[in-house]
Design goal:
The chain is α+β, with helices and mostly antiparallel strands. It is 25% helix and 22% strand. The protein binds adenosine monophosphate and zinc ion.
Length: 112
């Protein structure tokens, strides 16, 4: 298996866990772009949001809920941002779908 995030999820590459359950694993981003920067990943390998199938609709909802749970655990009551980069133009660099949870500072808009 060559996927970086699959290796993080199975523990063969170390990470700092923030939240986990039977469907997902959330861990600290190694190159944080904000005081809080957590990645929420499904345990199942799905390459990108665009590759998610109709059968993944419930899982996608669960990932969004897990992002909110991460924000609660990290006490981001002032607000936060959830981002999914998709494909080359979307800035995706790791081909295992993940939600970025960013917080701890005000966010600007539009993103770069
Ligand atoms: P994206 O560019 O949206 O595909 O996001 C990939 C994210 O994975 C980036 O924010 C990287 O900093 C992060 N990342 C890459 N390698 C690791 C790692 N070993 N542990 C934690 N985060 C990582
Ligand atoms: Zn994977």
């Amino acid at each position: 298996m060559s996927c970086l995030f699959c290796k993080i999820i199975d523990g063969s590459i170390p990470s700092t866990a923030v939240y986990q359950d039977d469907q997902c694993y959330a861990f600290a981003d190694i190159h944080p772009r904000a005081p809080v920067h957590v990645l929420v990943t499904p345990r199942e390998h799905i390459a990108s949001l665009g590759d998610a199938a109709e059968g993944h609709k419930k899982l996608l909802g669960h990932l969004l809920w897990a992002a909110a749970e991460v924000a609660r655990k990290k006490e981001l009551g002032k607000g936060y941002r959830v981002v999914v980069n998709n494909g080359a133009y979307g800035g995706q660099t790791v081909d295992h779908i993940h939600l970025h949870v960013l917080g701890g500072r005000p966010m600007s808009w539009p993103p770069g």
